[in-house]
Amino acid sequence: MADYEKLEIAPPKTRDIMADKQDEPRPPARARRNGMRIAFRELRFWYMFLGLIMVLYQIANFVDRPLLFLFLREPDFKGQCAQPEPLFPGQNEELDRLVDIIEGDAFRNASVDRLSGAVQVKTESFDDLGEVGQDPRWEVFFNFHKYLEKTFPLIYERLLVEKINTHGLLYTWKGSDDSLKPTLLMAHQDTVPVPSETIGSWTHPPWSGAYDGKYVWGRGAADCKNSLIALLETLQLLLEANFQPKRTILLSFGFDEEVSGRRGAATLSAFIQDRYGKNGVAVIVDEGAGFEETWGTLFAKPGTAEKGYVDVKITVRMPGGHSSIPSDHTSIGVLSELIVKIESEQYPTRLVEENPYYSQLQCGAGYSESFPKKLKKLLADSAFAKSIMSPMCHNRSNNNNKPDRLALEAAKQGPAIKYLMQTSQAVDVISGGIKTNALPERATVTVNHRINIGETTKIVTDRLTSISDEIAKKYNLTLQAFDGSQEKANSIHLSSTVNRLEVAPITPADGSTNSPFTTLAGTVRAVYGKNVIVTPGIMTGNTDTRYYWDLTRHIFRFAPGYDADDEVGLGKIHTVDERVSVLNHIHTVRWFVTFVRNMDEARFDTDTVAGRGAGKCGSSRDRAECGA
Ligand SMILES: *[C@@H]1O[C@H](CO)[C@@H](O)[C@H](O)[C@H]1NC(C)=O
Ligand SMILES: *[C@@H]1O[C@H](CO)[C@@H](O)[C@H](O)[C@H]1NC(C)=O
Ligand SMILES: *[C@@H]1O[C@H](CO)[C@@H](O)[C@H](O)[C@H]1NC(C)=O
Ligand SMILES: [Zn+2]
């Protein structure tokens, strides 16, 4: 506005008046009036233009939609989901021959035997296991170690194998260049138990390791003895082909992943960090998400994020007494009121930009023919709003109060998608009361939560505290919220269990930069072809990697095996008829062989010598100790 006045009106007028005083002929009054009218018309035009912009702006604000987007081109969704070219390792005849070996009959037959044998060694883990060395149920892992040693003699002969906390396994294949941070590959040795009453429902007995020409069946076949065996097969093949790594390769196998990993992964990661230092490894690949066909496109979805986790236990304590003279409300009634309140409202469906599902939508919009039009539009709006507004105004993470239209639309695809963008709450366990003629003195409920990306467990505990506070006031009870205190009489007591976990740090996953993600994605496209689109994925469950956050930002929860004809996928994990397609397994090995070679050739900015890292395994004195 200020600019306009200065330029368009003031100067000409002044000059006109000055001109009158010169000897130039004075223009006729009519012409002067005309000139003014023209000036006014121009002015009016600019005012109208300005008004129009303000109206548009108001409308845009009102409908929460940048209307100006209509005049602009669609955002570059493909660019937001850059796909690296297929990445093949440098030529090496002996190593290149591995692909044919892996795809051959002899390897397939031998691989079936190795996998089947691994399934036949029971390695169940139970929630109530005691400490290692005390509870005899841990001893099954000695059998498993024997089996591995017998099956992979070359590895045990040539590499360093260390046992951490008795049953944790750490394999080290020392690289020749100490300045390169190691590649760390993970799996777990334990499986969930098979409840004895379900054994009869299995098509093949759960520890048979039966092979029917396509699948190997049994507990652990898909979660995750398949990847554990595939990793050892990978190293064995590379050893046989005289591979000489520059970058150190580590395999780390925990033994209690299914019961929180406290004894296995936790002690392994501490050991590894002690040796290589904080941020001491280049990349971690652990079990996780695999491939999925959506919107007509095949996506590989390595998990780059994990939702957080918190179980909250709420206990209501109220006076007991005889049932014949009850109070109006017992602890069970009050707890019920609390539960109804908790369930009456759900956490918001919100998709922050850091959430890998946001990237998945961009990838879908960029590459999938049948990507839903409405989603694409909302996605474009979001991208546009971001491009014109200041980061503070349009930071999806900050728009806490407005409904997230993009997330709500995407959530229509079903609850499995919705809960990629929403903190879940599930009232799972309840108990209270012991006798029909006694008022219950105590009633307890446990509510399970998985925390949305961009949120924290504190949001959950704050909300439950505020709801409980209301009820506590109503019934004159003392509130003891997450303060670690002992339960008192006449109280509502809240606590979170030990497995509380924040949302995992997000793994960088920009396919247009030189990063471990790009190496991983390039390997996927080298093995499966360019029609596979690699997009960051999100895990709603937690893996052993929860203990490895300090070792690297570059953590991927990824099952790299894909078999187009395997209709089951990983659908049978943790239940009856768990099985794995052998073709899937073969592809897993092929992928890991390629990935390890690609990582060996890759160089990253983060590949500086780790301070302590070079430490224990760096010097020549320590070399023998760390495997050569
Ligand atoms: C692999 O096993 C099948 C039967 O399971 C057999 O027919 C075939 O000859 C074996 N191939 C090799 C190379 O051992
Ligand atoms: C958005 O806000 C969140 C929290 O307020 C912050 O962590 C994040 O870095 C912001 N993102 C951008 C792109 O500014
Ligand atoms: C609330 O409880 C306290 C003791 O816990 C008691 O002293 C007080 O009288 C109670 N108030 C009401 C209104 O019942
Ligand atoms: Zn698992």
From TrEMBL:
Annotated InterPro entries: ArgE/DapE_CS (IPR001261), Bact_exopeptidase_dim_dom (IPR036264), Pept_M20_carboxypep (IPR017141), Pept_M20A (IPR047177), Peptidase_M20 (IPR002933), Peptidase_M20_dimer (IPR011650)
Bilayer-spanning residue ranges: 45-63
UniProt keyword annotations, A-Z: Carboxypeptidase, Hydrolase, Membrane, Metal-binding, Protease, Transmembrane, Transmembrane helix, Zinc
Binding site for Zn(2+) 2: H188, D223, D286
Residues the entry annotates as binding Zn(2+) 1: D223, E258, H574
Active site: D190, E257 (proton acceptor)
GO biological process: proteolysis involved in protein catabolic process
Gene Ontology cellular-component terms listed: fungal-type vacuole lumen
UniProt keyword annotation of Membrane present: yes
Domain Peptidase M20 dimerisation: 304-475
One Pfam family cited in the UniProt record for this chain: M20_dimer
GO molecular function, one term: metal ion binding
Similarity section: Belongs to the peptidase M20A family.
Record's protein name: Carboxypeptidase
